[in-house]
Amino acid sequence: MPLSTADIIAQLTTLVGPAAVIGAPEQMGNYLNEPRKRFHKSAAAIVLPASITEVQAVVRWANEHGVGLIPQGGNTGLVGAQVPLRGDEVIISLTRLDTIRSVDPAAGTMTAEAGVILENAHKAAEAQGTIFPLWLASQGSARIGGLLSSNAGGVNVLTYGNARELTMGVEAVLADGRLYQGLNSLKKDNTGYDLKDLLVGAEGTLGIITAATLKLFPKPEDYETCLVNIAGPEAALTLFQLLRERLGGRLNAFEIVPALGLDMQLRHAMLDRDPTAGPSPWYALIEISRMAGGQSGLLQAAIETAFERNLIDNAVLAESLSDRTRMWAFREQMSEVQSKEGASIKHDVSVPIAAVPQLIAEGSAAAERLFPGIRPVPFGHMGDGNIHFNFSQPVGADPKAFMAEADEKLHGAIYEIVLKLGGSISAEHGIGQLKIDLLAQVKDPVALDMMRSIKTALDPKGILNPGKMLP
């Protein structure tokens, strides 16, 4: 017989103590209010274990009683993987597991627990003359466990890869409470299935990541950063190809932003001044790193070549840390500023890099046909084909009416183009509860069967993040 909410709270309190359990709905807001405000279910309780042993105890209890558990880190996910789907689940917050167990600059590794805030991981790495190169806008609140569970990307994927590629090993509590001790720091270990890669990106459906061994890299001596004016995505593609030829692996980031993004941020006073070289239909934010003893001025030389080839008509190089910070703020505030412009419809998609211009052109035209006056705001990681293809409501439109009419139709139009171009419906945000039905439509049926078999084998009672990812 299912446990009542009162029983759940009482038994969790016995396991971990009253200070580690939140049972009053009015006290759950920080754990339920996800960034996009699309999901509004409550939870039976919030539990905050303070140790791996307590995590194991909670999971064993949940498995015994058939209680759904939702692992949660910083609650920054954008597809609802970290919040309730039904309303009878228990959120297991990993925020108290926030110890950085070790930093080994010689080996190039850091072992951090799931609750470590990304920004704190950056600081710990930099204190040892290294970097952990996973950078994203939510780094002040996103936590290691959630970032790995969603296989986060960010702005440095071009050089360093996504979260999976930055992870050497994981420790995780399985559905029956056993502890998988896979904190491997070996670069070569050919002894069977790569279980780490199975758990990273699984959105907490196969196990609860409690710690990870992460890759560190030498800290650059400096960065060279530039904002260039470009005619559009086609010109950006040509420019990107030139820079890869000239700069190779030094090219850390190549991000594109439309002029509308700058207009919005200046209108809402989110920038203290215009960071660009002047008006342009589009902008590209480009950055390279310079290691100790490396040659300076390489980005400027490459940009001069781009001028000579008429790929760009203006550019500004960061001459100070404040310049660089302002340029990156311009890029990182793109999602936030759209919330100030009313309703927005967002797509986290990827296509082959060469198809990015076609995606943006066809997607913008399709949206305008469906909803005249809609404002396309495509931006993001041109260098790896991941575009955040967002749309802001027409000026003066009613936000609720716009979302009710446009949300489903616009998703359908954009995803059709993405799939036609050989792309993915989720580049870095995951599936969660937002894209479950869509995944069932687009995923290879054999792949879905394999995923279900793995889920059944590792979580036969279906207690780990129930209803997420798999339809």
List keywords for this structure.
single chain, 471 residues, alpha+beta, 5-stranded antiparallel beta sheet, 19 strands, 35% helix, 20% strand, globular
Would you write up a description of this structure?
There is one protein chain. The two termini are 25 Å apart. Helix content is 35%, strand content 20%. The chain has helices at residues 5-16, 29-32, 52-65, 118-126, 144-149, 157-160, 195-199, 233-247, 259-267, 298-308, 321-332, 334-339, 356-370, 399-420, 436-442, 445-458, and strands at residues 21-22, 45-47, 69-72, 90-93, 100-104, 109-113, 130-131, 167-173, 179-182, 208-215, 217-218, 222-230, 251-258, 282-290, 314-317, 344-345, 348-350, 375-381, 386-392. The mean pLDDT is 96. It is an alpha+beta fold. A hairpin with a 5-residue loop joins strand 8 (167-173) and strand 9 (179-182). Strands 12, 13, 14, 15, 16, 17, 18 and 19 form an eight-stranded antiparallel beta sheet that branches.
Could you tell me the radius of gyration in angstroms?
23 Å
The total count of helices amounts to: 16
Mean pLDDT: 96
Major β-sheet, in short?
8 strands, antiparallel
Binned strand content = 15-25%
Uncertain stretches of 5 or more adjacent residues: none
Shape: globular
Structural class: alpha+beta
What helical percentage do the residues reach? Answer: 25-40%
Intertermini distance: 25 Å
Q: Number of DSSP strands?
A: 19
Summarize the structure.
By secondary structure, this protein is α+β, with helices and mostly antiparallel strands. The protein contains 16 helices and 19 strands.
